[in-house]
Amino acid sequence: MKRIYFLAFFIILYISSYSQQKFWVTFKDKNQSNFSLDKPEEFLSPKSVERRFRQGIPIVENDLPISETYINEIKNIAPNIIHASKWLNAISVELKSKEQYDAIKNLPFVKNISIVNTYKNLDKSTIASKDEPIITIGAPTFDANKYGQGHNQIKMISIDTLHALGYTGKGMDIAVFDAGFINADKLDFFDIARNDERIVPVWNFVDNNNRVYIRSGHGMNVLSVMCANIPNTFIGAAPDAKYYLFITEDSYSETIVEEDNWVAAAEKADSIGVDIFNTSLGYTQYDDTSTSHTYGSMNGDSTTITRAANIAASKGILVVNSAGNEGNSSWRYISAPADGDSVFTIGAVNENGLLAGFSSRGPNSSGHLKPNVCGQGANIIVASNNNSVVARSNGTSFSSPLIAASSACLWQAFPNKTSSQIFHEIEKSAHLYTNPNYDYGFGIPNFYKAYKKMELEYNQQNPTTSLPKVYPNPFRNGFTILWNSTSESPLSIRIFNSIGQSISDETIQVPANQFSRIYINNIAEKDAGHYTLQILQDKKSYTYPLIKY
């Protein structure tokens, strides 16, 4: 009882001490929602619905928006509502008096009220910002020199080999949650992605507007690890993916409201239909120490942000998060939401593959292995604020986007896999998989090793009595032909649309008496639908129906 009395006193004290205070109001149900699970297209984008359908994930109650009736009743008492979370069935709202608190608490549909954040007046001017032969048709060719100084971080995890196969993240959507993206709208590193409209500013949850190229350059550095594209200078891990930018972190202060912002951004990104989240942020201690977390809270499903991250993963999103930079501090351990059981947590190594001292350690407080894997985060190459000039930086802030973007390339190759399958196949490819530890997790992944294993499994699960073999089918962007040629005669590869029109006609030379892997990516921009593949050699013809989605 003393704990209950103390909590009640604590809440009353906060209300009386601050002119405005932010609270989470959690509802008991969604009984009066204006939407129905039978019509998901009314509250989710087609791509968000497709992602769930492809992975066999049902649309459930926590996908439904919150009841507008409930929200309006709260507004009648306290009009300043900040965010609404359908996943948590809660809203954040500013309360100015105990009378407002009591009135909301006594509403029959309210489950509970909890403090989100204590507002503090800060002098922002005094606070520093935180800082076999392979033949490709229609696919880019990468070589070591093209990566410039950033080749080591790419080569260490063998993502350059996937690039050579044509898997550069095309068709994959990545949400980036950060503190700001200063100069990402101007620097040459991002010209190709910007011109292709593959960098999309979405929302600044700190200032409540759509300006994301402000506040901090940290997000720009993070983005560069993923999508920078200046050949011979710096190429990111997934230069052809699409990126959605969100500001959730206020780099001038450290308050629990940033978890609230992250939840709102995550739900928005889910509704857009993104495949992957990258968050180079983590939360443990706050300016107001009464709202800080303890290591005991890092149990995988306790903090608001971690609960939301786990829900995001349940929607078929690969949730990638930096482990944190507390390895040399008294805290030492991973932070929220990196503690999440379903979160793909990334530690950092240096250019030689040795653990970076700053990389936060595991496990989470429930004993779950963390980090999951590591990538280069010490002495890593990032874009500088000068056009075409790279810089070196340090932090799990950069190993996380390296792995997130590389995951997009692997997933592009096997689009019918679930996010969980991609997560675990990357773990299995890592160098310490049979002997993991709480420093490296499963170690440094090898993305080509993961690709080869998944390809072998696909071929075993889809046996054919004759070649060629075509996979994946259905496909999103490109597909592979596995061909065993007994002749040196030219190979003709033709693709026809649903009304019989030829849309691609290529003739290539393949070596005799061995397997060749032929990657087809020259219809990636074509509409979804039914196509026909025809392969001819030595007057023999093979025809395959294709489905592009």
Can you characterise this structure?
The chain has 549 residues and is of the alpha/beta class. It folds into three domains: 116 residues, Alpha-Beta Plaits (2-Layer Sandwich); 305 residues, Peptidase S8/S53 domain (Rossmann fold, 3-Layer(aba) Sandwich), CATH 3.40.50; 80 residues, Immunoglobulin-like, CATH 2.60.40. Helix content is 26%, strand content 24%. It is built from 13 helices and 23 strands. The protein has a seven-stranded parallel beta sheet with strand order 7-10-6-11-12-13-14, sandwiched between helices. The N and C termini lie far apart (58 Å). 48% of the residues are buried. The N terminus is likely disordered.
What's the alpha carbon Rg, rounded to whole Å? 25 Å
Describe the biggest sheet? 7 strands, parallel
Fraction of helical residues: 25-40%
What's the end-to-end separation, in Å?
Answer: 58 Å
CATH architecture of the largest domain: 3-Layer(aba) Sandwich
CATH H level of the largest domain: which superfamily? Answer: Peptidase S8/S53 domain
* Structural class category: alpha/beta
Which regions are unreliable across 5 or more consecutive residues at pLDDT < 50? 1-19, 118-131
The largest beta-sheet arranges its strands as: 7-10-6-11-12-13-14
- Kindly report the average pLDDT value: 88
Helix segment tally: 13
